[in-house]
Amino acid sequence: MKKILAFAFMLATFSLKAQKNVFLEQSFWKENPDVAAVKSAIEKGNDPLAFNPASFDAATFAINNGAPNETVKYLVELPGAGVSRLTHDSRIYLHWAAYKGNVALVEYLLAKGSDVNREDSHGYVPVAFAANAGQTDPALYEAFFKAGVDPKKKYKDGVNLLLMGIANDKNLKLTEYFISKGLSLKDVDDNGSTAFDYAARSGNIELMKTLLQKGVKPTNNALLMAAQGTRRGANGIELYKYLVEEVKLKPTAVNTNGQTVLHALVRRPNQAEIIQYFLGKAVDVNKADNDGNTAFMNAVSGRDAALIELLLSKVKNINAVNTKGESALTAAVKSSSAETVTLLLNKGADINVKDKDGNNLAYYLVQSYRPPVDGRGPGGEGAPGGGGGRPAGGARPGEEQRDDFTEKLKIFQAKGLNLSAPQQDGNTLYHLAVAKGDMGLLKKIAELKADINAKNKEGVTALHKAAMISKNDAILKYLLSLGAKKDITTEFEETAYDLAKENDYLTKNNVSVDFLK
Length: 517
Known about the structure:
By secondary structure, the chain is mostly helical. Among the domains are: 191-283, Serine Threonine Protein Phosphatase 5, Tetratricopeptide repeat; 286-373 and 400-419, Serine Threonine Protein Phosphatase 5, Tetratricopeptide repeat; 425-517, Ankyrin repeat-containing domain (Serine Threonine Protein Phosphatase 5, Tetratricopeptide repeat, Alpha Horseshoe), CATH 1.25.40. It is 43% helix and 0% strand. The chain has 29 helices and no strands. The chain has helices at residues 2-12, 26-30, 35-43, 58-64, 69-76, 93-100, 103-111, 126-132, 138-146, 161-165, 173-180, 195-199, 205-213, 221-228, 237-246, 261-265, 272-279, 295-300, 305-312, 328-335, 338-346, 361-368, 404-414, 429-436, 439-446, 462-469, 474-481, 496-501, 504-508. Helix 4 (58-64) runs parallel beside helix 6 (93-100), helix 7 (103-111) runs parallel beside helix 9 and helix 26 runs antiparallel to helix 27 (474-481). The radius of gyration is 26 Å and the shape is flat. The model is unreliable at 1-18 and 374-399 (pLDDT under 50).
């Protein structure tokens, strides 16, 4: 109880007006802080339980930056933390400790009752997360096996730990360890992919030759796995020439998802030479996968203008749509640059395209909006899911910040897209912007002069929506300043005031909503 009260007192000093929290700054963790330094930072008002926009907290930063284990333990044991706390991508601390290969910390977390079966949002349990990340120390896996993990367990798509880990197992020491636990070099996943295929991800040709000598058979899936690469980067053209010209794999091969090698290659930077190689081998850029996405659609989601120009000459129908009704232009609006949007429109892309739910490009532009934030994931280079800070259409590290959102809006206006028209479900851009909860976005939308009092098909106005979900009064007051009417009622005869009174965020934080009467 004394510990809890003391910690509560320290947190009481935290100022709600504070603009920075050192626990969410990479620079703090680069200093390798000990427990004393962490306690000092807490006493100065920094919150160790706070999350950055990507849901990384102090303990996660500490683990990924290699802070002393005692520091990590202190943070994990703080009231409100604990081994079950969910962080980025629904990962617990055991995921991050395993990812870093920190055997001692893994053993500590396991002893504290950390859940070895906890899946993250991508379906990885901690031990699988470690194997997929390239950890090759048998001691790490031994800790999990002693904690009850079945060495022979198959994970998503029937992949076992031997297959996951082999791409980074240069001398096959980890593979030999897994074999001693009952796994085999003959193991395959549910798609028939072999250990050779998985080894292709790393581009280690010598490793693949060794596996061939050991009798491991390659399949065409090796090409597509090579194109996926690893977190450490993409593979070079030598690998593909080896697989196609020496191993004799089929360059036009299609995996069970309907994808060719191009679907993955176009998502990687600086792949022009390799893409040209496969185009020369008759791989079709128009081939749609099982979701209806072509390699070209994947390419325009990025920002490689030269690649997009290259593929455009091969595209048969620029207005082809996937199973969701999204075209290449839709993909560009969601995540590419204003220049890419202009390029596609100049090549005949349909500005009025709508998805199967009746949403137009304005909907996708609003959904793509991300406010500029500085917070980035911990762990530096190679940290999985370490992004989360760059706004869509914004600047990458080292680039000048730009406002692609506004540029795309101007393009839409110039091309005659009706931005004030509601979507098929009746939602206006005001409804969509309110749902994002961002004042900067709302101010951009306000310039379009849409009907702020329009009801969607649920009978709700933007003000009603804001009253239901707002966490403070700022957006509510801003909507009123734009002309939102307080007396409009829902189909249940509720006003914005009635809805706001039922908003737990507002009531629990004592936010007065009398201005809505």
